Task: inverse folding
C-alpha cells in the first residue's frame, strides 16, 4: 500500500525544519558525536524500545492490507458472498483508511501521538473482532472499515512519532523501519493465511495491537508534541528519558522550541492555495505520481493475489501467495538502500519498467490460457509475472512517490499538498481494489495488459516531468519550478525566534 510518509494534513509538517534535508536512509556521513546531546549509555535503549513499540502499528497496517489476499475463497464460500460483495469487503478498507488519514493530523495534535496510536489500535481491535464474529457481509464490511480507519491513523502517526523521538543521526534509518514493517506485516498475513482459517487469521491481527497498547505504557510521549501544547515539565522529562540522564538536552530543547515557533508563524495553506500558478508543476508531479502508483494495479493484485494465481491455472493459490510474501521484504530493503544511492528518478524508471514487464507477462499467460496454447507454461508465466511486478513495485514505486512529494513542496504548503496526495492515493486504491475482480471476470489478459499500459505511461511521466530530488534542497527544487519566493527553511529556522509572522514572511521573499 505504501502510504506512510504524508505530513500533518491540517497544520503542516511538525517534524522539524532540519529534516527537510535529511536523507531517508542515513548514509553514515554523520557521526554519533555530532549529536552530543545523546547519552549513549542510557538513551539508545529507550529510543529503540519506543521505535519498536510504534512500528507495531506499521505491522498492524501490513496485516490489515494483506488479509484479503489469502482468504478470498474461504470467506466467499463460508458466507456465500458474491464477487461484488467480496470486492466491497476487500476495498472498503481503503475508504476507512482515507478518512483515518485525513483526520489523523488533527487527532494526533489533539490527544498526542501516544493517544492517537491507542485510538487507532482500539479501532483495529474492534474491526478484527467484528470480522471474526461475522455471519454475513454487514458485520464483515463494518469490521474491515474499522481496521481501515485505524491503519489510516497509523499511516500518519507512526512515522511522525519515530521522527520526533529519534536523534538526528538515526532519524532516517529508524523512520525507514515503518515501511519495512508494513511489508513484513503483509507478508506474515499472506503466509499465515495459507495455513489457518480466515477467522483465526483475523485473531492474529489483534497481536500487533495488543503489543502496541502494552508497550505504550513504558515509552514517553513525543517531546515535540508536549512542547507544542505547552506541557513544559513533561517535555523536559520526556526528552531526558529519550536522551539519557547524563545528556545535555539544553541545545536540542531550544531547537525544538524555535522550530515550533517557526512552524506556528508560517502561513497555514489550504487546498485552494495549491491552485496558485507557482505550485502547479509540483502539484501535477505529486498527484501524477499518486495516480501512477495506483493505476499500475498494486492494490488489485495485492488484495486478491491468491485468486489471481488460481485463475492462472495453479491447483492452489497458496504456493504463489507464499512466494509473493517472501519476495516483498528483501526487495523492499534493497529499495531503501538504493533510494539514496541511485537517486529517486532512476529508481522510479527502473521500478515502473519492471511493473510493465511483470503485468505484460501475467497478461500474456492468461492470453495463452484463453487460446489453449502452451498450457504447461501458463502457471509458471503467471507466477513469474506477478512476482516480477511485486518485486519491481517494492523497489521503487511503493515508497519513492511519497518521498518525492515531501521534498518538492515548501514547508508551509506541505500539509495541504499531503492532504491532496492522500485523498488521490486512497481513492485510487479503492477504485482499483473494488474493480479488480470485475475486470478479471471480464478479461484476465486484458486486465494485466491494461495495468502494463499504465506502467508505460508512468515511465513517460517520470521521464518528462519528475525531477531528481536526491541531494537537492527544497529551495533549489522550487527554483527549478519557477517558485522564487520560498526560502530554504532549514536555514531560516534559527533566524525567526521572536519575530512576527509578517517579519518572517517579509524575510522569505527573495
Result:
Amino acid at each position: 500500500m505504501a502510504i506512510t510518509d504524508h505530513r500533518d494534513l491540517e497544520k503542516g509538517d511538525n517534524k522539524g525544519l532540519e529534516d527537510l534535508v535529511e536523507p531517508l536512509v542515513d548514509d553514515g556521513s554523520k557521526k554519533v558525536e555530532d549529536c552530543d546531546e545523546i547519552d549513549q549509555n542510557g538513551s539508545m535503549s529507550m529510543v529503540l524500545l519506543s521505535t519498536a513499540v510504534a512500528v507495531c502499528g506499521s505491522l498492524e497496517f501490513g496485516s490489515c492490507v494483506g488479509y484479503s489476499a489469502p482468504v478470498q475463497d474461504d470467506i466467499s464460500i463460508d458466507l456465500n458472498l458474491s464477487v461484488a460483495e467480496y470486492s466491497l469487503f476487500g476495498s472498503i478498507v481503503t475508504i476507512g483508511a482515507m478518512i483515518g488519514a485525513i483526520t489523523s493530523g488533527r487527532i494526533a495534535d489533539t490527544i498526542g501521538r501516544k493517544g492517537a496510536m491507542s485510538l487507532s489500535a482500539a479501532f483495529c481491535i474492534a474491526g478484527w473482532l467484528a470480522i471474526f464474529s461475522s455471519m454475513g457481509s454487514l458485520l464483515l464490511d463494518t469490521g474491515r472499515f474499522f481496521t481501515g480507519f485505524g491503519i489510516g491513523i497509523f499511516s500518519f502517526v507512526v512515522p511522525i512519532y519515530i521522527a520526533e523521538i529519534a536523534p538526528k543521526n538515526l532519524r532516517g534509518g529508524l523512520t525507514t523501519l515503518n515501511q519495512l514493517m508494513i511489508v513484513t506485516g503483509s507478508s506474515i498475513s499472506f503466509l499465515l493465511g495459507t495455513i489457518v482459517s480466515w477467522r483465526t487469521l483475523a485473531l492474529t491481527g489483534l497481536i500487533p495491537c495488543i503489543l502496541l497498547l502494552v508497550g505504550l505504557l513504558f515509552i514517553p510521549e513525543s517531546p515535540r508534541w508536549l512542547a507544542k501544547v505547552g506541557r513544559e515539565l513533561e517535555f523536559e522529562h520526556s526528552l531526558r528519558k529519550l536522551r539519557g540522564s547524563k545528556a545535555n538536552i539544553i541545545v536540542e530543547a531550544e531547537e525544538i522550541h524555535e522550530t515550533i515557533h517557526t512552524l506556528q508563524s508560517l502561513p497555514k495553506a489550504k487546498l485552494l492555495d495549491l491552485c496558485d500558478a507557482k505550485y502547479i508543476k509540483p502539484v501535477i508531479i505529486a498527484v501524477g505520481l499518486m495516480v501512477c502508483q495506483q493505476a499500475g494495479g498494486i492494490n488489485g493484485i495485492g488484495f486478491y493475489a491468491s485468486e489471481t494465481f488460481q485463475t492462472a491455472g495453479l491447483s492452489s493459490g497458496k504456493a504463489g501467495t507464499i512466494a509473493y510474501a517472501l519476495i516483498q521484504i528483501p526487495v523492499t530493503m534493497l529499495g531503501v538502500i538504493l533510494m539514496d544511492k541511485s537517486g529517486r528518478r532512476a529508481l522510479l524508471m527502473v521500478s515502473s519498467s519492471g511493473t510493465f514487464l511483470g503485468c505484460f507477462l501475467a497478461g500474456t499467460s492468461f492470453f495463452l490460457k484463453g487460446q489453449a496454447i502452451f498450457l504447461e507454461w501458463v502457471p509458471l508465466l503467471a507466477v513469474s509475472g506477478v512476482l516480477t511486478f511485486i518485486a519491481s513495485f517494492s523497489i521503487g514505486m511503493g515508497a519513492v512517490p511519497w518521498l518525492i512529494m515531501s521534498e518538492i513542496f515548501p514547508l508551509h504548503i506541505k500539509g495541504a499538498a499531503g492532504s491532496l496526495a492522500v485523498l488521490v492515493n486512497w481513492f485510487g486504491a479503492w477504485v482499483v481494489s473494488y474493480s479488480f475482480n470485475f475486470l478479471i471476470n471480464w478479461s484476465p489478459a486484458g486486465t494485466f495488459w491494461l495495468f502494463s499500459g499504465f506502467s508505460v505511461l508512468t515511465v513517460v511521466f517520470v521521464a518528462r516531468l519528475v525531477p531528481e530530488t536526491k541531494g537537492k534542497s527544497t529551495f533549489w527544487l522550487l527554483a527549478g519550478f519557477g517558485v522564487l519566493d520560498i526560502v530554504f527553511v532549514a536555514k531560516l529556522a534559527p533566524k525567526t525566534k521572536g519575530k512576527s509572522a509578517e517579519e518572517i514572511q517579509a524575510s522569505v521573499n527573495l
In short: The two ends are 39 Å apart (CA to CA). The chain has two domains: 42-219, 271-471. The longest helix spans residues 83-133.
